[in-house]
Amino acid sequence: MRLLTITLACLFGITVNASAADIRSISRLAAGPDNILFVADWKAARIHGISLPPADRKPAGTAFNILDLEALLAKHLGGAKPTVEDMVVRPGTAEVYLAVSHGAAKTPALMVVTGDRRVRRIDLKAAKSTSVALRDAPTSSYKFWNETPERSFVVTDMKWRDGELFVAGLSNQDFASTLRRVTYPFGSQQQSVTSVEIFHTGHNLVETRAPIRAMAFASWGGKPYLVAAYTCTPIVIIPLEDLKDGAHVRGKTIAELGYGNTPAGMVAYTKSDQGKSEDFLLLVNFERVANVIPVSQLEAASARPGFDKVVPFGQIAGLDVQQTPLVGTMRLDNLDEAWFVLVRRHLETDRLQLVTMGKNLSFRLSDHVSEYAFRDFAFKGDAFQLKYIKPGQDFLLKHEGFPEFIKSPD
After folding, report:
1. Which DSSP helix (H) or strand (E) runs through 71?
2. Tally of CA atoms within 13 A in the half-sphere of 49 that contains its CB
3. To which H or E segment does residue 384 belong?
4. Which of 31, 126, 332, 335 is the most exposed place for a label (fewest CB within 10 A)?
5. Measured distance CA(71)–CA(81) in Å, rounded
6. What is the mean pLDDT of the chain?
7. CA of 348: how far to CAs of 70, 82, 217, 357, 399, in Å?
């Protein structure tokens, strides 16, 4: 009887008695409403909604300067080397949740890290949760490059918005690239599945298999859109009203941001300057620098015809974006209204780190040895440096944990 129940659940995407203790893998995380954390288990093709205990609210400005994240996590994994699969911030708490795998079996674990270097492991066996099976999940045993299971792409990104969890990934249908909308609390008829095709500006192909790799939401003209980034970095927009159960949609390709790249994540944020606010998306990439995309640019691009011709390798087209120094970033999220927090592999030292960066997206001062870092450098007598450079450097030195390196203005 239980086997029949599970079979029906997989077919129709209904909930069954599958608890967080049954989680076999963690590929993606998303923060939900009312202390809910969503966890994607690609092996089971299931989304779990874990109820977290209440947490204290924290003021903005918490600093993360954890430069030895790998060693810190390993202490809580019996010494095993961790692989960070995903990261998300629990809004308002300054708590960072990390999905990791470890050991030869890639055993999943869910860790919580705070700026004071405290780490605790979530007991999945004791966690209160509900779950939903993803409809039409891929069943192929195929492995990309003899290593990565196709099924592991059942969830490539997921985001919570207005009572729904949007889930990008693959299905077992002929048009495999899929967007699912799942309402919460999970119910028997609350999942829609839409297949998606796009014109790929770098490949000169209409593509139906390769899934969205990173996504966020933005609104203009009174209408909400899903903004998606794909491998080799075409940028696509889809009106949310088009994402209906059983529909097949073609996203509008509005930009090409660079070949030879896999997007690592995308977040929406607002930046205020002199009383004026502007909305942006930040796209971080595994093989390229990050891109700051003004929503005003997306709106302007949406009014133009979509791309239907190849963009030659090496060209950026469709959007005027700002590049920002986030090379090595693996995952990034909004920490508060002023700061991002990111998991990165610092390439010079080959260390896994969990650090904060301001939303002005300048840089982390302690990443660099410049003229300013030398012991005998002085600001004295240089009006430009004293007015425009030193205040910012002093702020960063305090935030990054090096107040003893603040130089006297005299």
Report:
1. helix 69-74
2. 21
3. helix 383-384
4. 126
5. 8
6. 93
7. 16, 20, 34, 18, 21
Angle made by CA atoms 183, 185, 187, in degrees to the nearest 5: 75
Alpha helices in 279-323 (DSSP H): 295-302
Q: How many helices (H) and strands (E) does the chain have?
A: 5, 28
According to DSSP, the residues that pair with 325 across neighbouring strands are: none
Task: Tell me how far apart the alpha carbons of residues 309 and 200 are, in angstroms, rounded to a whole number.
Answer: 9
Residue % of the chain over a pLDDT of 70? 95
Kindly report whether the global pTM for this prediction surpasses the value 0.85: yes
Altogether, the residues listed in the chain come to a count of 410
Dihedral sign of CA atoms 28, 30, 35, 36 in order: negative
Instruction: Specify the pLDDT at position 362.
Output: 77
Give the rounded distance of the alpha carbon of 77 from its chain centre: 24
Lowest-confidence segment of 121-125, 358-362, 391-395 by average pLDDT: 358-362
CB-CB contact of 170 with 154 (8 Å) = yes
CA distance 250 to 198: 5
DSSP designation for 275: T
Query: DSSP assignment, residue 171?
Result: -
